[in-house]
Amino acid sequence: GENVEQHPSTLSVQEGDSAVIKCTYSDSASNYFPWYKQELGKGPQLIIDIRSNVGEKKDQRIAVTLNKTAKHFSLHITETQPEDSAVYFCAASPRGSTLGRLYFGRGTQLTVWP
Amino acid sequence: DAGVIQSPRHEVTEMGQEVTLRCKPISGHDYLFWYRQTMMRGLELLIYFNNNVPIDDSGMPEDRFSAKMPNASFSTLKIQPSEPRDSAVYFCASSLATSRTVKTSYNEQFFGPGTRLTVL
Q: How high is the pLDDT of residue A29?
């Protein structure tokens, strides 16, 4: 099955700086790459996603890039704020018999210091 | 819609006891997922259902774990007997496949608030 690697596991930045989280995947058939944010005591929540026919997508301060040739994708957060502090998960979804399933990375604990 | 509902939110039990976790997916969703989250292993998929039918249960740790989905609006995850190593946060998530005619699916999963299970 698909294998998703995520780095770094922890990330600390100063408020206003940028944060980048990177993921790689193994299955070239994967075509959907969502990012989830998990705040303390809550379930993960989708913040942005990208499909394989798109190289980059932006939504206000967050952006995701995808390199299908290299099989990696990244989350970029600009002008970070303390409320961005959370655990972020990347995921990949392959086609075929595993319809509906997401494969998650191990997560990145982001801390934004005021 | 109220989102995915899980109960109980917290469960403390003693080793050997039966534990039942409950989930109500978002109305109209046709996929339901059970995950377990621990510091050591991250977010693990245990089992998922499509139209109430179990599709993949390869993540279920062992025979002590079982899951059912008797109808589209309810699912249970049961652990019998429970062990201290089962202590974790268990999440239920649901999604709606955007296409039923091709073998590709872009499916946002909506997670519930989780059940924090502690087995003493």
A: 87
Q: Which of A32, A41, A43 sits opposite B91 (nearest CB)?
A: A43
- The residue type found at A101 is R
A106 min Cα distance to partner chain B (Å): 5
Mean pLDDT of all residues in B9-21: 97
A47 within 8 A of A24, measured Cβ to Cβ: no
Nearest Cα neighbor of B50 from B8, B9, B109 is B109
> Are the C-beta atoms of A91 and A33 separated by less than 8 Å?
yes
Strand residue runs (E) in B1-120: 5-7, 10-13, 19-24, 31-38, 42-50, 53-56, 65-71, 74-79, 88-95, 110-111, 115-119
Question: Which among A36, A43, A99 is the nearest to B97, CB-wise?
Answer: A99
Going B85 to A2 to A55 to A12, the CA torsion angle's sign is: positive
Q: Which pLDDT score, from 0 to 100, does residue A97 have?
A: 47
Phi first, then psi: what are they for A68, rounded to 5°?
Answer: -70, -30
Q: pLDDT per residue over A35-75, tens digit each?
A: 999 999 999 999 999 987 778 999 999 999 999 999 999 99
Do the chains contact at B114 and A95, CB–CB below 8 Å?
A: no
